[in-house]
Amino acid sequence: MSEGRLPRRLRLPRAPAQAKTQRTPPVVPASLIERLLKGGLSSALEQTLSELQDELPGVAQALFWVRTGPNHFNLGAARGVAKAVLEELEEVPESFIRSAYLGPPEGWLGGVAQLDGRPHLLAQLFGIQPAEAALEVQEAPANLTLPLAVEQKVWAVLHLHATAQQLDAAGVGWVGRFVSSIAPILHEVYVREQAERQSLWLSAINALLQTSRDQPLEVVLQDALEEATRLSGADGARLIAFEGSVIRTIAQAGWGAGLPLEAAVARPMGQRLRSGQQVSILRYDLYPGQRPELVEAGLRSLFILPIQHQNGETDVLLLLSTRPRWSPKAQTQVLLGDMAAAIEAVRTEWILRRELTWAAHTDPLTGLGNRRAFERDLEQLTSRSDGQKVVLVLFDLDDFKRINDTYGHVHADHLLERLGGVLRFKSRAGDRAYRLSGDEFALLIGGSSSIDPGRVVERYRALLEGIRVAGQVYLKVSLGYATFPTEASEIESLWRLADDRMYKDKARRKGRTPLFAPSDDPIQWRLQLETPLLRLAARLAQVLQMAPEEQQVLQASCYLLELALGRVKPSQDVPIPESLLLEAARVLMRLQTSWEEARQSQNLLREPAPLVLHVLQVAQHYITATQAVEGRAARSVEEALEEIAALAHRRFAPAVVEALYSLRVWLNSE
Fold first, then answer.
1. Are residues 496 and 536 in the same domain?
2. Beta strand pairing status for 432-437 and 440-447?
3. Segment holding 615, helix H or strand E
4. Residues 6 or more apart from 245 whose CB is under 8 A from it?
5. Which residues is 73 bridged to in the sheet?
6. Which residues form the GGDEF domain (predicted)?
7. Which residue among 41, 203, 314, 523 is buried most deeply as judged by most CB within 10 Å?
8. Please, which pLDDT band fits residue 332 given cuts at 50, 70 and 90?
């Protein structure tokens, strides 16, 4: 009997004055066998009790208990017991049922019937007393307890209550023979029903584990809770997470939507759940910690199953019922535990995949998308056919190397973090920002055909140049943009146009003219843009944040090398200062010196090899490798990069090789 239950009074019907003197042999008709196999276990047990009472009309009450778990039995069928009493009967431990059997243990496990003259079974087990009028009956009571066992394990127990006159030794013998004749049929129905129930649970669990990971987690969990509600017989379910001092609903299904059920998990109960204890409240309306608004809404029973995670956090699975004294059966509780484990596995995997996806597509310093995310999103946006414009904006920070040298790397990193925060929290809705490498960034701006890209881009420039570096020093950025599909219909041409405009903007803002400035002669302009060596050297200079003077020397060196190799023709329209020609010539004289040799020379002569030399070496090797020559086909971008990487630390400067790798997307577009 559950704690706090009050004894009830049970009025037993008076037994007939006379019982049958002649009993038919316990032959089971084929029609009865067919009916037993056709329905479920409850129906089969009810029919069995009906047959028994037809043969033994003096039996006042008949009860059939069925095993529902390793140590629990539930009332599977009953005759002659008031419905109100049945509602009070709950799943009971096997020890309760076993206590009503006075025979030896071998008799219990062997399925031997036992007859006793003790008080009514319900009075023995649950304290439900017969009515006073029934106590005046002079006939002595008789209780028949018949365990049904298979392989020394009791799976069901039959209880009959009558008077000793109506339930004598002959009647007990007949009951034993009749039940033993149909017990295999009942057991088959029992096993089949158990297997079907378990199969339904396993199918639901497998469906949960095999759900497409493209579905939102909330939808997956709601489907799982709906299955748990249906299979357990509850009215609703809810998955709740303990997050520090906060209790939050993750998913819900069935009855109770909209109710503050988190309030049902009181503080003392939360402590028990965190320790891994299950909680079953059979009468929530009588529970000391009940919330009136939940009782008023109809909540009567609660079953709470904790789900503990490896990180120490706890979730709880709540099963709700509007019926008093409801609780999932012992076997169902085991299957609910399996469902809870599957829910934990799915949530853990989803969280892990989310974290891995975030890490794979996010720059850890700024919180912006990284190059991988940029490439993915750019391809998706430009493959749409909805007529929307896409504006690609490329920008980098002017003189960021000087900021590093002046204020230190920690200050510079903090500056990048603030820039990332500005772009994440102050960007227009739908715009996406990315850090491509170092101080190089990109924006993807979507909009209708009426969008003014120039105005939007200048807004971003003003936003970024409002970031203070130190004192009265503020960030300066160089921007270039191109619009898809009006200005460029392919990703490569879109990228190139935005990149060229950013290069022009940088030159204009620094108040200087590029070495090969565009002139009125279109030939000169094409020479500047279409020489692969010049373009690659300029890109490497940006990534490495070379000073303007170094970039001038690098451009002059590239031009002289192109002249020496016959790739361009000399022109009188390219005035190069004599001092710059001298510096460029010195670089070309050391062009065959490897990075390792240059380091050794630096140690001996204390003359460091200029960065211009290292950049030109890598750029020239890459251009040569990706061009076909007699007897050798042109290498792909990846093959050329791998070849150069293999020569790093020996022939080429590692920092320049790393800068070259950061240009992989641009190189493929070239």
1. no
2. antiparallel
3. helix 611-625
4. none
5. 67, 92
6. 388-518
7. 41
8. confident
φ/ψ of 608, rounded to 5, equals: -70, 145
- The per-residue pLDDT for 572 is 57
| Statement to judge: residues 194 and 92 lie in one domain | yes
* Percent above pLDDT 70 for the chain: 84
Q: What are phi and psi of 254, to 5 degrees?
A: 75, -150
Range of the domain at 100: 25-198
Which pLDDT tens digit goes with each residue over 337-351?
899 888 888 888 888
Q: b/e map of 372-408 (b: 16 or more CB within 10 Å)?
A: ebbbebbeebbeeeeeebbbbbbbbbbbbbebbeeee
Cα three-residue angle 324-328-333, rounded to 5 degrees: 150
Q: Are residues 280 and 423 in the same domain?
A: no
314: CATH: 3.30.450.80
Cα separation, 670 vs 535, whole angstroms: 10
- Residues 331-355 as b/e (b if ≥16 CB within 10 A, e otherwise) read bbbebbeebbebbbebbeeeeeeee
Can you name the residues that pair with 67 across neighbouring β-strands? 73
Into how many domains does the chain fold?
A: 4
User: How far apart are alpha carbons 367 and 440 in whole angstroms?
Assistant: 14
Torsion of CA 577, 583, 588, 594, to 10 degrees: -160
Coil, helix or strand at residue 256: coil
pLDDT tens digits, one per residue of 470-522: 877 888 899 999 998 888 888 888 998 999 999 888 887 765 444 444 434 33
Q: What is the pLDDT of residue 368?
A: 93
Q: Indicate the pTM of the whole model.
A: 0.54
Q: Tell me which DSSP letter residue 407 carries.
A: H
